[in-house]
Design goal:
The complex is a heterodimer. By secondary structure, chain A is α+β, with helices and mostly antiparallel strands. Chain A is globular, with a radius of gyration of 23 Å. Chain B is mainly alpha-helical. The chains are: A alpha+beta, B mainly alpha. The interface between A and B is medium-sized, with 28 and 31 residues.
Chain lengths: ~475, ~325
C-alpha cells in the first residue's frame, strides 16, 4: 500500500522528511512496505496481535473489576533510528545516569552539591523518595540506580529532550523483547536487508550486572527477582525476565530475614539470597522501616541491606533522584559532577515552589503540561490546551495548596511515526524509553520501548491511558545497508 | 524449590487432570443416554453424584436435565469443579510460576483458558457436546505431553507429576463408584445388554475400555473393579497412580522407595501396599462402595499431609492478596 497521501503535517516524522520523501535510512523499508497490499498488512497486524495474546503478553489495569488482562496494543510499523543518531543518544544517556548516580551517592554522604548551593536542600529533603535511613550507606560497588529507563521525546525540529528519568522500577523492557520476536516473524525480509541491532542479549546483560553487584564475590551467587505478585500490572514482565535469566521469581512471603541475612523458603529448607532484583516499590519493601501495614515486603530486609548482606537492585533511596522537581536539576548535576556539558537537554521545566515560575505557570496554564512530581503512569497529569476550564481551575488550586507537588512544562509537539489504521497510514505521536544497565560498565539496550498514542491527536502514550507500542530498530554502524 | 512454587505446580497439574476427567465423564454419559431408552433411568443423576457436588447442583438447577448438567459441569463458575473453574485455576497457578514452566506449557494453558472463557464457547459446546469434550480432552492432554517433553526431570516435574497422579487416582476411584449409583431397573437385568453397556461406560470413562479388552474378554464386575483398582501396568489404575506418586514423592525428598522420611511418604506407601495385597473378591463380598469410600478418605488424607508437610510455609493465601489489590 502506498504512502503517497501520507501527511507529516507540521510535526517531526521519524520515517519521513518534511518534503514527504522517506528519510535516507528508512527508504528501503518504506519501499518494501509499499509492496504489501492493504489487506495483507491488516492480516499481518492481526496476526501480530493474536500472537501477543496467545503468549499471554498482557498487563493488568488497576481497578479493572473483571480482572481480565489486556494486551498492550502493538503497531507493526517500526520506528527506525540510524546509527549516528543512536550513538549520540547512547552517549547522552550514559552521561546522565553517571551523574544521577553520583548525585544519589552524594546526597546520602557529604551532600556537596547542596553545600555548594547548586540544589536547594529543601527540594531534596522533601522528596518522598528521599530516605534519611539510607544516609552513610554505600551499596555494593557504589551503584544506586542499576536499571533505568529514561523517557525521551522529540520536538517539532527533531531535537531530543529527556522528559523523565525513571530510576526506580522502570518497566516495559519485556515488550521490547517480545515485540522484536513478533516483528521478526512479521517482516523477516526487512531484517535481512537492514542491519537491525539485536536486543535479545538484554536478559544476559541484566544477569551479568546482578551477579556483579553481589555482596559476596562467589562464582554462583543466588539471585532472585522480587515481584509484588500476579496482580501487579507488570507481573508479566517480572515472570518473563526471571524465566529468561533462569532465576527464581519470588514474592515477599517467600523470603525471610534472620540474623540480618535474607533467605528464601524452599521445599528443602532455607536458602541464602545474595542479590534481589526488586520490582516492589521501596515503600512496600520493609514494614519495619516503611509502610507498617505492607504485606508485600520482608521485615528486616533493609537492615540486611544496610549491613551489606544482600544487594537490592535498584538500591532503596534511589527514588530521591526520580522526582520531577529533582529532574529540573539534572543538567546542573552533569556540569557539577562530571564537568561536562549535558548532551541531552531537559524539557524546560517550571518549579511551582519558585514564586516567579509558579506565577508564570498559572498565567499560562493553557500552554502547559502540569505534572505531579511523584506519580507515574501519566496519572494526575493536566494538559493545558485540552483541559476543561474546571480542570484548569482545580489544577491551579492544587498548585497553590501544594506547590512542591507540581512542575509544569510547555507542551511539546511529540514527533510522529505512521501507524496502520482502519483507513491507511496515519501519523501518531511517540516517545522513546531506552533501558540503561549500570554494572561493571554502562550498557544501553539498542532501541527501547517506543510508545505510541493510538488515538488521533493524543499526546498520551502511557499504557495505562490507552497507548500502544512499536518496535524500535536501531541500525548498525555501516549505515544500515548491506554493501 | 520455593514452597509456594511447588504448591502451585502441584495444583496446576491437579486442575488440568480434573478438567480432563470431567470432560471425559460428560462424553461417556452422552453415549450412555443415547444407548438407553429415554425412560430407562435418570441418566445424569449418577454423574452429578460422583462429582461430589450434588448439593449445590440440585440447589441451583433443580432437575438433572442434560442441558443443566452440561452447563453445571462445563461452564458454571459457581461449581468449583467445573471444567471452566478448573482451567481458570490451573492458569492462575501457572501464571504464578511462569518462570519455572516452559513457554510451550504456558502458551497451551493460556490457550485453554482463552478458549473456555471466550463468549462463543457455550455455543460451541451446545452445537456438539461430543466434539467439544473431545477437543478439551485433547487440549488438556497436550499440556501433559508438553510437561513430559519439555521439563527436566527435576523437582518441578515431580510436583507436577505427583499432582497429576493423585488427582487421577481419586478420579478413577470415583468413576468406579458410578456403577453403584446407576441402579438397574430390575434385578434380572444383571448381565443383560444394559448392564454390559454400563460397565463399558465405566471403563470408557477411564479411557480403559481398549486395554481392558486386551486383558479380559467379558464384562465381569469383579474384573472391571480389579482392572481399575489393581492393574500394575494400566496408567489410570489406582495402584499404578499410587506407585508413581510414591516414586515422585521419594524423588523429591531423596528417599529410597520402600522407606519413608516423612508422614506423606508413610501414608502413601501404606496405602499402596494395602492395594498390592488386596483381594478383589473379598472387597466385593464386603461391599465395593464401602471400600471405595475408605479409599477416597485415605487419598484425601494423603493430600492434606502433603499440603502440611511441603507447602505449609505459606503465610498468606493468594485470595487475600487479590483483595489487597482490588
Amino acid at each position: 500500500m502506498t504512502f503517497g497521501y501520507y501527511q507529516t503535517e507540521y510535526f517531526f516524522d521519524e520515517l519521513f522528511e518534511r518534503t514527504g520523501e522517506p528519510r535516507p535510512h528508512t527508504a528501503s523499508f518504506i519501499e518494501s512496505l509499499e509492496g504489501i497490499s492493504y489487506p495483507d498488512l491488516q492480516a499481518i497486524q492481526r496476526a501480530a496481535e493474536a500472537s501477543l495474546y496467545k503468549l499471554g503478553i498482557t498487563f493488568n489495569v488497576y481497578g479493572n473489576k473483571d480482572g481480565r488482562e489486556k494486551i498492550f496494543p502493538f503497531d507493526i510499523i517500526p520506528r527506525i533510528i540510524d546509527a549516528t543518531e543512536w550513538n549520540y543518544l547512547e552517549y547522552g544517556l550514559k552521561q546522565r545516569i553517571k551523574a544521577l548516580n553520583l548525585f544519589i551517592d552524594d546526597i546520602y554522604h557529604n551532600q556537596h552539591i547542596i553545600k555548594d548551593k547548586k540544589i536547594p536542600r529543601e527540594i531534596v529533603e522533601t522528596c518522598p523518595g528521599y530516605y534519611p535511613q539510607c544516609a552513610n550507606h554505600r551499596p555494593a560497588k557504589g551503584i544506586w540506580s542499576h536499571i533505568s529507563g529514561m523517557d525521551l521525546v522529540r520536538d517539532k525540529d527533531g531535537t531530543y529532550y529527556v522528559l523523565e528519568d525513571n530510576l526506580r522500577c522502570p518497566s516495559g523492557v519485556s515488550y521490547v523483547l517480545e515485540n522484536r520476536q513478533v516483528m521478526k516473524q512479521t517482516f523477516p525480509g526487512a531484517f535481512k536487508d537492514l542491519t537491525v541491532r539485536p536486543v535479545e542479549e538484554y536478559p544476559q546483560w541484566l544477569y551479568d550486572m546482578l551477579a556483579w553487584v553481589s555482596p559476596e564475590q562467589s562464582h554462583n551467587p543466588t539471585i532472585v527477582l522480587l515481584t509484588p505478585g500476579m496482580y501487579n500490572s507488570a507481573y508479566f514482565e517480572h515472570a518473563y525476565l526471571a524465566q529468561k535469566m533462569g532465576i527464581p521469581l519470588v514474592e515477599g512471603r517467600d523470603l525471610m530475614v534472620t540474623e540480618d541475612k535474607v533467605f528464601m523458603k524452599t521445599t528443602s529448607g532455607l536458602k541464602r539470597v545474595d542479590v534481589i532484583y526488586r520490582r516492589v516499590d521501596e515503600n512496600y519493601l520493609d514494614p519495619l522501616v516503611f509502610k507498617k501495614d505492607s504485606v508485600l515486603g520482608i521485615p528486616g530486609i533493609i537492615r540486611a541491606f544496610q549491613k551489606g548482606n544482600v544487594s537490592l537492585v535498584n538500591a532503596p533511596g534511589t527514588g530521591v533522584a526520580d522526582d520531577k522537581a529533582i529532574y529540573h536539576f539534572v543538567e546542573t548535576m552533569i556540569r557539577y559532577y562530571l564537568n561536562e556539558e549535558p548532551v541531552l537537554a531537559n524539557v524546560p521545566t517550571y518549579l511551582c515552589t519558585n514564586e516567579t515560575e509558579r506565577k508564570h505557570v498559572i498565567q499560562n496554564i493553557d500552554q502547559m503540561v502540569v505534572k505531579p512530581t511523584n506519580e507515574s503512569g501519566g496519572y494526575g497529569v493536566i494538559i493545558g490546551p485540552s483541559a476543561s476550564p474546571e480542570e484548569k481551575a482545580s489544577c491551579i488550586t492544587a498548585i497553590q495548596n501544594n506547590p512542591r507537588n507540581y512542575i509544569a512544562q510547555p507542551v511539546i509537539s511529540l514527533s510522529r511515526v505512521p501507524v496502520l489504521s482502519e483507513k491507511g497510514y496515519h501519523g501518531r505521536h511517540v516517545d522513546l524509553r531506552p533501558y540503561i544497565l549500570y554494572g561493571e560498565d554502562i550498557r544501553v539496550l539498542p532501541g527501547g520501548l517506543t510508545r505510541v498514542a493510538l488515538k488521533e491527536g493524543s499526546l498520551i502514550v502511557n499504557s495505562s491511558q490507552g497507548g500502544g507500542s512499536k518496535d524500535t530498530w536501531v541500525l548498525a554502524d555501516n549505515g544500515g545497508y548491506h554493501a | 524449590m520455593l514452597s509456594r512454587v511447588a504448591e502451585s505446580l502441584f495444583w496446576m497439574a491437579r486442575y488440568i487432570e480434573r478438567a480432563e476427567n470431567v470432560s471425559r465423564f460428560i462424553a461417556v454419559n452422552m453415549h450412555l443416554t443415547l444407548d438407553l431408552a429415554s425412560d430407562a433411568i435418570q441418566q445424569w443423576d449418577p454423574l452429578i453424584a460422583t462429582t461430589g457436588d450434588q448439593t449445590i447442583f440440585y440447589h441451583k438447577y433443580g432437575k438433572s436435565t442434560q442441558d443443566n448438567a452440561i452447563q453445571f459441569l462445563i461452564f458454571d463458575e459457581d461449581n468449583a469443579n467445573s471444567i471452566k473453574s478448573c482451567l481458570i485455576k490451573a492458569r492462575e497457578n501457572a501464571r504464578g510460576v511462569r518462570d519455572v514452566l516452559t513457554t510451550e506449557i504456558w502458551e497451551q494453558i493460556n490457550h485453554l483458558y482463552l478458549s473456555i472463557t471466550s463468549e462463543t464457547a457455550p455455543l460451541e459446546a451446545a452445537q456438539n457436546v461430543f466434539q467439544y469434550c473431545k477437543k478439551l480432552r485433547l487440549e488438556t492432554q497436550l499440556v501433559k505431553g508438553l510437561v513430559d517433553n519439555t521439563i527436566s526431570r527435576t523437582e518441578a516435574w515431580h510436583y507436577l507429576y505427583l499432582g497429576r497422579m493423585l488427582e487421577r487416582a481419586e478420579k478413577t476411584v470415583r468413576i468406579l463408584d458410578v456403577k453403584y449409583y446407576i441402579l438397574l431397573p430390575k434385578v434380572e437385568h444383571v448381565g443383560t445388554p444394559i448392564d454390559n453397556i454400563q460397565w463399558a461406560a465405566v471403563l470408557m470413562s477411564a479411557s480403559a475400555l481398549d486395554m481392558y479388552h486386551r486383558q479380559y474378554r467379558r464384562f465381569l464386575p469383579s474384573s472391571v473393579a480389579h482392572f481399575l483398582l489393581f492393574n500394575r501396568d494400566f496408567p489410570r489404575s489406582v495402584l499404578y497412580c499410587l506407585t508413581k506418586s510414591e516414586s515422585s514423592l521419594c524423588a523429591i525428598s531423596n528417599t529410597p522407595i520402600g522407606t519413608y522420611s516423612n508422614e506423606a511418604e508413610r501414608q502413601l506407601g501404606r496405602l499402596r501396599a494395602q492395594l498390592e495385597y488386596a483381594d478383589i473378591n473379598d472387597i466385593i463380598q464386603n461391599g465395593l462402595h464401602e471400600f471405595i469410600r475408605d479409599l477416597i478418605s485415605n487419598l484425601n488424607e494423603i493430600g492434606n499431609t502433603i499440603q502440611d508437610h511441603f507447602f505449609s510455609s505459606q503465610s498468606l493465601p493468594t485470595s487475600s492478596l487479590k483483595e489487597i489489590y482490588a
